[in-house]
Each structure stands twice: as C-alpha cells, then as structure tokens.
Amino acid sequence: MEVMDVEREVSNNNSVMCLLTDPEGEPLGAPLYLPQNVGPPQLQEIVNKLLNNVEKMPYAFYISDQELVVQLSSYLQKNKVSVEKVLRIVYQPQALFRIRPVNRCSATIAGHTEAVLSVSFSPDGRHLASGSGDTTVRLWDLGTQTPMFTCSGHKNWVLCISWSPDGQHLVSGSKAGEILSWDPQTGKQSGSPFLGHKKWITGISWEPVHLQAPCRRFVSSSKDGDARVWDISLRKCVICLSGHTLAVTCVKWGGDGMIYTGSQDCTIKVWETTQGKLIRELKGHGHWVNSLALSTEYVLRTGAFDHTRKAYSSPAEMKEAALARYNKMKGNASERLVSGSDDFTMFLWEPASSKHPKARLTGHQQLVNHVYFSPDGQWLASASFDKSVKLWNGITGKFIASFRGHVGPVYQISWSADSRLLLSGSKDSTLKVWDIRTHKLKQDLPGHADEVFSVDWSPDGEKVASGGKDRVLKLWMN
Amino acid sequence: MPQGDYIELHRKRHGYRLDHFERKRKKEARVVHERSAFAKRVLGIKGKMFAKKRYAEKALMKKTIAMHEESSSRRKVDDKVHDGAIPAYLLDRDTTTRAKVLSNTIKQKRKEKAGKWDVPLPKVRPVAEVEMFRVIRSGKRKCEHLNVVPLLIVEMVSSTAKQWKRMVTKVTFVGPGFTRKPPKYERFIRPTGLRFTKAHVTHPELKCTFNLEIIGIKKNPNGPMYTSLGVVTKGTIIEVNVSELGLVTPAGKVVWGKYAQVTNNPENDGCINAVLLV
C-alpha cells in the first residue's frame, strides 16, 4: 500500500482512480487504478472481462453525462478533474450491429392519387404499407421496389396504419371512424370492418406479443373522446374506454399490460385491460397532449424479431422470445412514459409508481408534435414545430443536444435499430439523418416535392420509407 | 292633434270596429294575390327591381326550408371525401397553405438567362430626368462682390454658381458597405432621409406581407443609370432576403434571395411596397 501511495505522489499524472458504474448507478467491481493513457477501447476490454461476456460487446463511456472519446489524460486536462477523488465512469451497452446511414433515394414509387398520410414497415422488415388520402392502403414489394397490392374499402382518408407485432395482421383507421383489417399476403380485407367510433381515428396500438401470442387485441383512439379495444378473431369491440372529455390524440399499449391514452383535455389516462377500468390520471400539461412515447416501445413494436432475422415457427416460441427481449430491455426499472404537448413542454412519467411527473422537459419554442424513445431506451428525441429536434437523456430527462437544420416545422421522427442514428421528416420537404454520438447532421435527404408527412426506418436498418403531400413513396438506402 | 292620432283616440274611447279583426285578417291574406298581380303587370326598370327582390326572397325561403328539413334526418358521418388530405396530427389545426415555389425557381432561372421578365407591372409611367433630379448649386457666387466693384463697371453677372451636382428626389437603396465619395467629386447626392433598407413584400398566392431586407436593385425600368444609382421607383425589380419564409429548392438548398417588383411610389408613401415574383 505504501509503495503504491508513493507511486501515486511521485508520478502524479500517471494513474487515476476510476469506478465503473452501470447506467442505473450500481458499481461494477471495486475502484481501479488505471493509467492515464487508457482510452475507450481499453475500458471496453475491462468491462467485458468484469462482466464475463462470452462475446465482446461494444460499450460507450460517459463521465458526468459527457461521452468519453479520447484518452483519460486529455479528458482530465480539459476538464481539470482532480485525481484525488474517485472518477465515476458510466458504461452503456451499445447495439452489436451498426446501421449504415441512408444517403440516396433508391426508388420513388408513385401509386397513390392523394397525399400519403402514414407509412409503416412490418415488424420483421419484410413488408411495407402506406395509407393515403385517396382512401386506399397500399402494400409495396421491397425487393423490386414496386407496388404490390392496393387495398380499397375505406370510405375516407386512411389516417393510421399499424402492423401486429407478429406481422400477421395489418389494421388501418380512417377519417370516417371505421377500422379495417388486411391480410398482408394477399392484400385483401380479412373480415368485416370494425365500426363503433363516431369520429376519425387518431391512433392504433397492438397488444404486445409477450402478453398474448398470436396477437389478437388492439386499441384505437378517436376524436370522439374514447378508446376502444377490439378483438381481431371475435371481430368486435370488447372494451370501450371512455372518460376523456375531448379528442384522444394518441394511444399506446404498454408492456406491463396497461393502456395509456393522451388527449386534448390535457390529461393522460392509464387503463387496465381486463375490465377497462381507469387506474390513474396523469395531469400536468397546460394544453393538448400530442404524442406519447414508451421506453420499451421499439421492442413492443418489433415483438420477437430482432437483427438476427430469425423466423419463428410457433406462436409460443415467439411469445417466449419476445418476453426475453422485453425483460432484457426493461431491466429492473419500471416503464417510462413521455408525453409531448401543445404547451411546448414534455413530461417524463413513471406511471407504475406515481401520478406525479418525474421531470418536466422544457426548451422547445413551439408545440411538440412527436416524441420517440430510442430502441435501447437511453435517449429520447422530440420533434417540434419550431424547426428543431431535441435530444434528451431517456432515463433522467436531462437535455443533451438540439439538432437544428430544418427550415420548416418537423413533423415525424424515427430511430435506426441500433440507436445511433435519428431520422426526421419536416414540412420543408427534406429528411435529415442526425448522428447521436457527434450531435451533428449526418446526412441531408432532399428530393420530396412537398411536405413529408410520415417517415419510417425498417427494423432491419436497411431501408427508410417516407411519404408526403407529393403523393409518392420514396425508399432510401445506403 | 296629428291626423293618425284621431284614429287612435277613437279606438281608445270606443274600441275597435266590430268587424275590424276579420277585415284585417282578410286584407292581409289578399296581399299575396295583390303582389303577384303587381309582379305580372309592372313594366320597365321598376319591374326588374321588383323581380330581383322577389327572387331573393324566394331563394332565402328555400334555404330555410332545406335547413329545417336537414335536422330531421340525422347522418353520422360526412360522406364526401375532401381534397387536401392531411395526417391525424394536423387535422385539428388550421395551417396556412404554402404555395409551391419549387418548380418556379427553374422557370425563373431560364427567364433570367433569356433576359425576359414576366412581371406584374409590365408598363410603368416613365419618370423624366427633371422629375428625378434636382439641381444643386455649388461654389462661390460671383455677385457677392457687386458692391465692391465701381458703379461704372456694373457687370450684372448672374450668380454663376456651378450646377453640375444633382440630388436624387426619389427613394434610393445603397448597400451596407456604402461610403460617400469626397463632396468635391460626388455628382449625385442621395439624401439619407430617402434611403431605405427594407421593403414590404407581398406573396401573391399566400396573400400575406412580410417586411424583408433588400439585397440590391436589379433593374429600374427608367434606365440603366438609375439602376446603378440604386433609385427605387414604381416598377423597379429589387432582390429581397427571403430566408425567413423557409423556402427550399428540389435539390435541398435553402432559398434566401428572390426578386420582387415595387408596386407603389415610395417617395410619396414613405415605404416600399413590392410583390414577390414567383
């Protein structure tokens, strides 16, 4: 010990005491003496060893919320951190695979005769569907990048489409208040329409596959103020969640089996799904709640499919795999919910624990239109009509960076599957890809002739689809 | 007592005639027939005016009947499919429609190359030089020495001041890096009171006006000399900074300068009003 102390005093700028902690704050092993020429690659080796990982996993390191990209010595010099105190380094696991940023438009497919209002990739990334103002839903072939099926049957604009997490069903909601379900293999309607809502449909969300496989139930929200839970095999409405006094703008089915609805009456209601009873009401916003995001949303959307592209034979197997993925994603903490509102702020809630918000995220100068958690839940991105996209810490809600570049209101955002890239589509007809590590613009994707209404990044990370007012669907690739 | 009051007084004292109400009712019922007889009989301008009024009443009556009938049959949803589809998050918001500028930038570039302009005011009243400039005299006046000169040699020399300087009487635009020439050599004086940097530019399709900075004068229809001087009169083409409008070209570049044509006489109004050339 004495020898070590002497060493420390004599060669004062040679080693520093570090403590590696995981994102929740738990330390990994005891504090270590590390020489100052240690950088992220060496730290990665140490973490892999300490965690006894069979395969080498990539990690990113953060000291007081700032990413460590250089050697420790340069960091210490720049920030003048004292070597006498223990330096806490937080390690965050990163995705094994790396998604390449898209930089070219590989196809511009015409087909819709009115503006494209929503695009969505299926959870396995093999099918692409789009809903439009010409009352049709179209399915597109990704291999040849041409139209495949045209599904007509709606009476008015198709406002929302949603794939079931097992990829077997596609449902779409229209401005006339009806919901139709389609078979993605044949492009035909798979049953009778779901009637019940009196005004237009604002959002559709499926029950997670780890709660029930094969997927049967989904919830839809409407302007008439209630949300309805439908069963696709019984083909009727099983529960009607009424309680909101104004339009329900968004609905999400959480991984722990609760349904969250955000409404224009400035409240968010949490419902349980067996009987449709109201569990909690989250108040706090001063104006309409525009968008909701769950920390586990990406995993719920993709279900059992991940980057290994494994196909599952039975629903039970799918349920198990989805449950494993969900538990890994969730960790020990409970699900987090973020709501973006017209009052220019967002709230971070933990609905399972309390009805008071955990944090209030301010900074936007115009209404927040879309909020989205990254697939690994570490980051949160918000798109606003003040032409900027803001990045926040997904766990604490602290502001990290603001992405400026758009010249018109930003409408929708989408994350790449490895959480390293963020895509935004705006009224100024451009899409922009932002790098999360450098907090800068990675790629600018102009080409649309008019406003871009909807963007989606495929879960396998290869393609991006965007549609807007100019009636064409654009596919972007690397 | 006024004439009509006698009737009222009689009514107050003795009440109404016994058949008054029946007669009144029947007379009012006959009005319809009288009106239609009048409509058939009347001629000329009087007839036309009456017919117009009568038609307006008929249309109004039809509308009220239709309105009353509507409420008895209820329909759940509006069946018509409208144009201009917007996604769910924009449905309850009223947004201003943006005119498409994109294809027009290419057309504009082509026209620029050809030197032809398709402008809102193709012809303007020409401004004469005497209207544009005011003569400024400079130099010492010779007549000041008149009392010194002996009376015999009275050379009534008119004040032969130098008259080569001109002051511009119209509104001008000078760029931000403008500095005057030395006063001895400057031929044209542009007074600071008539210098403007901003213009009120109206977008012809959106019908809204923005206060935008002028970048430069492109062309004054009265002549190239006025263009180089920076004189702004009615019909002048100016270039304005449109970065605050947020326009983007198909290539993804942000448009920050566009041409506009001046539509008023700025020297009379004290401001420059222009219409954007899209």
TrEMBL record, chain B:
InterPro entries: NSA2_fam, Ribosomal_Se8/biogenesis_NSA2
Keywords: Nucleus, Ribonucleoprotein, Ribosome biogenesis, rRNA processing
Entry's localization field: Nucleus, Nucleolus
Gene3D superfamilies associated with the record: 2.40.10.310
Superkingdom in the source lineage: Eukaryota
GO cellular component: nucleolus; preribosome
GO biological process, one term: ribosomal large subunit biogenesis
Subunit structure: Component of the pre-66S ribosomal particle.
Functional summary from the UniProt entry: Involved in the biogenesis of the 60S ribosomal subunit. May play a part in the quality control of pre-60S particles.
Protein family according to the UniProt entry: Belongs to the eukaryotic ribosomal protein eS8 family. Ribosome biogenesis protein NSA2 subfamily.
Protein name: Ribosome biogenesis protein NSA2 homolog
